[in-house]
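Technical annex, item 7. During the second reporting period the consortium partners agreed on a shared format for inverse folding records so that results from different sites could be compared directly. Each record opens with the tokenized structure and is followed by the designed sequence. A conforming record, contributed by the partner at site C, is shown below for reference.
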């Protein structure tokens, strides 16, 4: 199957894709740049199919098969010089395929379990946290100012499709957080807290607050009514990374709610 080939960086569709590498561009276009077959398939299976796919004609048979199926399903597919495609990716070894997909607008659920992220800056950690939140059935993941951009390519890859399965919301300030999260009890994951996470009644409307990797929570630690909760550690291990700690606590909430 032959596809229209792009060999110039001045092509309008290529320039659109390039603009999505920046936070400002993503917000302006309300679109995302997805890299790799798996992530693009995740967007399709979740109901957010791409509007445009670029691929390297020298890519693997898997990629060729995928773009041919995408083309048959109605997606616009364009082949692209390898050098130009490399400008759309930030992985060491690219699969040779990227897609322009819609920014998912997912409404929060109503189970009464949410995650609030404060001062988390590592893209891989945030992506993994989003994946755990989606898997645990969290209603939403709310982020305070200062958290790394959840829609950046590295976070998208680490999330492995979670962005298309859980509501992700970026709050302007505490007032907006209160509007979104209501009167639910707030629990801050904190290594030295006196209360253990297993002592929390997660069946009640609850918010799990997750802070940064080194400095912890910057703002929420000072909020009234926030209760610190800890995971007991052995062998003189001081803490877990943010995504792992959140996963442990979220699935304790799942366990209690299913009991």
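Designed sequence (site C submission):
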């Amino acid at each position: 199957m032959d596809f229209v080939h792009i060999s110039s960086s001045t092509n309008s569709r290529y320039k659109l894709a390039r603009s999505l590498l920046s936070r400002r561009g993503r917000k302006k276009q309300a679109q995302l740049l997805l890299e790799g077959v798996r992530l693009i398939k995740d967007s399709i299976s979740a109901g957010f199919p791409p509007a445009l796919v670029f691929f390297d004609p020298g890519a693997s048979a898997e990629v060729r098969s995928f773009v041919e199926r995408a083309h048959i399903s109605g997606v616009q597919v364009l082949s692209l010089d390898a050098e130009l495609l490399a400008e759309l990716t930030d992985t060491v070894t690219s699969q040779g395929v990227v897609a322009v997909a819609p920014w998912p607008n997912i409404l929060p659920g109503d189970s009464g379990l949410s995650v609030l992220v404060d001062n988390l800056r590592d893209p891989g950690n945030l992506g993994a946290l989003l994946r755990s939140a989606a898997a645990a059935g969290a209603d939403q993941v709310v982020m305070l100012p200062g958290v790394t951009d959840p829609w950046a390519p590295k976070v998208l890859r680490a999330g492995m499709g979670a962005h298309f399965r859980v509501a992700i919301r970026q709050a302007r300030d505490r007032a907006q957080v209160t509007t979104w999260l209501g009167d639910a009890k707030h629990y801050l994951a904190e290594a030295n807290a006196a209360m253990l996470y297993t002592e929390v009644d997660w069946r009640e409307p609850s918010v799990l607050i997750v802070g940064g990797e080194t400095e912890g929570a910057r703002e929420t630690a000072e909020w009234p009514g926030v209760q610190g909760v800890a995971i007991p550690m052995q062998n003189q291990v001081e803490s877990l990374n943010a995504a792992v700690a959140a996963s442990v606590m979220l699935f304790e909430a799942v366990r209690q709610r299913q009991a």
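Residues 113-258 form a domain with the Alpha/beta knot fold (CATH 3.40.1280.10). The radius of gyration is 20 Å. All partners now use this format for quarterly exchanges.
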